[in-house]
């Protein structure tokens, strides 16, 4: 089972979530994909993730993009799970401080206020040290939102693929689909 965690101001309608779901469906593994809509409040998002994990059965693989990668790290370390991280956020409590105030979800159009209390929740969820054996790290050096080197340092020793160029959306995402499927231990269902 793959539990996909989308990023900040994103949704299950994001390109990567749809591409991964379509890939798994084409492999006869559509029932092995779950992607909940994460609330913008981190305290609520963690409740939604915990609930989704409860429905996923034993040892799902987390796939997290950007802020979803931050959440995936928190739960991978807390619960001993494996995770694929796509241009992951390392310190959203620092990086998203400049976004305090009114936000609009890019997919749903929902407007909300990003508050300082949200930053503090993210700070409390941060994991200082990780077990690199748990992770597959996918990075592009052209990420205009997050510094890929920060993720490379934090997850040093993890299975890592770094592509020159690209951007925060991970332009090379489609080429990684078989690698993600193998890492999750999912054999084609046909």
What does this structure look like?
The chain is an alpha/beta fold. It has a single domain, classed as Rossmann fold. The longest helix is centred in the N-terminal third of the chain and has 14 residues. The two termini are about 15 Å apart.
Quickly list its features.
Rossmann fold, two-stranded antiparallel ribbon, 35% helix, six-stranded parallel β-sheet
Care to give the gist of this entry?
Helices cover 35% and strands 18% of the residues. The protein is an alpha/beta fold and 190 residues long.
| Mean of all residue-level pLDDT scores | 96
Reading the helices and strands in chain order gives EHEHEHEHEEHEHEH
Q: What is the fold named in CATH at topology level?
A: Rossmann fold
Distance between the termini: 16 Å
Widest β-sheet, arrangement of strands: 2-1-3-4-7-8
What is Rg? 15 Å
Q: What's the story with the biggest beta sheet?
A: 6 strands, parallel
CATH homologous superfamily annotation: Alpha/Beta hydrolase fold, catalytic domain
Oligomeric state as shown: single chain
Uncertain spans = none
What is the CATH C-level name? Alpha Beta
Number of strands: 8
Residue fraction in strands: 15-25%
Helix content: 25-40%
Number of DSSP helices?
7
The count of domains is: 1
CATH architecture: 3-Layer(aba) Sandwich
Estimated structural class: alpha/beta
**What is the molecular shape?**
globular
């Amino acid at each position: 089972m793959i539990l996909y965690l989308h990023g900040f101001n994103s949704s299950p309608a994001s390109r990567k979530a749809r591409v991964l779901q379509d890939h798994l469906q084409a492999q006869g593994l559509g029932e092995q994909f779950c992607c909940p809509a994460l609330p913008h409040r981190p305290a609520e998002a963690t409740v939604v993730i915990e609930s989704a994990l409860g429905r996923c059965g034993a040892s799902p693989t987390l796939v997290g993009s950007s802020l979803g990668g931050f959440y995936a790290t928190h739960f991978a370390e807390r619960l001993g799970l494996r995770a694929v991280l796509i241009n992951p956020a390392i310190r959203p409590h620092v990086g998203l401080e400049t976004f305090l105030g009114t936000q609009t979800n890019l997919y749903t159009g929902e407007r909300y206020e990003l508050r300082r209390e949200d930053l503090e929740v993210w700070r409390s969820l941060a994991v200082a040290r990780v077990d690199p054996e748990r992770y597959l790290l996918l990075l592009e050096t052209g990420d205009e939102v997050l510094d890929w080197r920060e993720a490379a340092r934090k997850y040093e020793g993890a299975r890592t693929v770094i592509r020159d160029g690209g951007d925060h959306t991970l332009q090379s995402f489609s080429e990684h689909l078989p690698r993600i499927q193998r890492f999750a231990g999912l054999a084609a269902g046909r």
